[in-house]
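worker-3 :: picked Peptidase
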Amino acid sequence: MKIRSDILRTYQSLHTWTGITAGLLLFIGFFAGALTMFSSAINDWATPPEYQLSQVKAGDHDVLLQQVLSSSPEALKGVTISFEEGSSPISWYGHGSARGFSMDDQVWHATLNEQGDMITELRHVNELSMLVDYLHRSAGIMGELGHDQAGVYVLGIAAFLYFIALVSGVIFLLPSLVKSFFALRKEKGANRFWLDSHNLVGIASLPFHIIIAVTVIVFSFHDLFYGGLSQVYGDKPMFGGGEKHEEVRYELKDLPSLDEIKQATLTYAPDYEVKSISLSRLTTEHPSATVMIISDRTLMRGPHNDYVFMNPFTMEINSSSVTTDAGQQGVWGAIVTSFFGLHFGSYGGELGRWLYFVMGLGGAFLFYSGNLIWLEKRRRKQTVEQSRSSHFMANLTIGVTLGCAIGLAGVFASSKWLSLGDWNINIAYMWVYYTLFLSTMVSAFILGAARFSILGLKLFIALCVAVPLNSLVAIVIPSIGIWAPDSIADLGIELGSIGFALAAFYALRRAKKRVYQGEENSIWYCPNINKHQKTVSLA
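worker-3 :: tokens ->
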């Protein structure tokens, strides 16, 4: 395919500057986003085994529910009945709510003892997975704008630039795509190798990146989109429904059994399994039951489940709000559901989650390698001294990428130890992450990208290895109070940590070779270190 050289240069410039402008923010979003694919496993791993109360026998949920509703007025506002093993049978918020990221939420847990009496405990919600999701959605940018984090809007702008970078990158790569797609030319220097790797990852996962770019834009600015569409729809609901129902205040004694609610749900959505039922506003004119259902065979709206909404007293299903294929959402409702499902990757089951995890990490690599390519292209090969702008971008790149990785690794490494203290663990998580992130940023600028890339990778490896070592300590000294994995999912978190450590060890070897034995006119070459390391073999 023949494209004029001036057009190619224009698109290459557009690709470069949009990528550089948004790349580091998107690195955080993608790196943390990859981890969110296993948020349920992260929560289970970070939560002490005794945090959840014992599950009750089938059929006893109704007995417990009646005791909870009669003795706890707060539960009338909203209560969740879980049917999953490893979860408290009933819980409700004593402070806060399930919406958004809050560090001081407290939840009541309830179960029955052997005599059939209710036992309740009030506990802080462990928000480790929510911290990861917060970084994924906002890149860690603090502050609020309206009812959402300011970082969400910043990341939305970055996603728009990211989409432009994708389109422009494909256009200027088209002439050489066929002959160089699978080429990884190490023998032609670091710049060519990074460029080939960047192009391979970008083109191979292009559909995924387009999906993520578009959905992030929609999520970030959905309020503006809805506001614009409301000018067209007027008083008519965009998402279907809008039927007026007679307002009736129901009595708790008329509440059907949970089995009846489950059966009504499964009749409506037969290919699903009921995960939990959330009852809310039970003593008002607008009672609601949100039934969380799961299936690996359909496109689900949430990261882990679909929803069926109904009146818990009449069991009338609100089909316009149901997120399954059986619902009658209308055009816009179906579009929004599709955006959620495509972004979360929940429609593909475990295989889909793993694919999104790998492609999420690939996206993080894409932005990191893009910065390296930019730095290599601006290298002054006639002199050892590089421009201040190149040093600044190198320090910033290492500071942000390693800062995010070290911060998250530090949170995971300290999580079980933090649970031993008498403090709000979610605030402690934030302190650990931001302390490590900011310290890494400052250190990268003080020591320089070359020297700190080695120190930072060593610290990241140590923190990753600390995660399974903590479990070894728990096994050897059980009285200390921390715990070892008690499920395959928990063990998977620790095996994943070892995998990150091994990948970082490989990167460390490459970084050492680049710093100690690299080209002298590179910003990655550190002569002060090199004088003492020339005799060191790094092969």
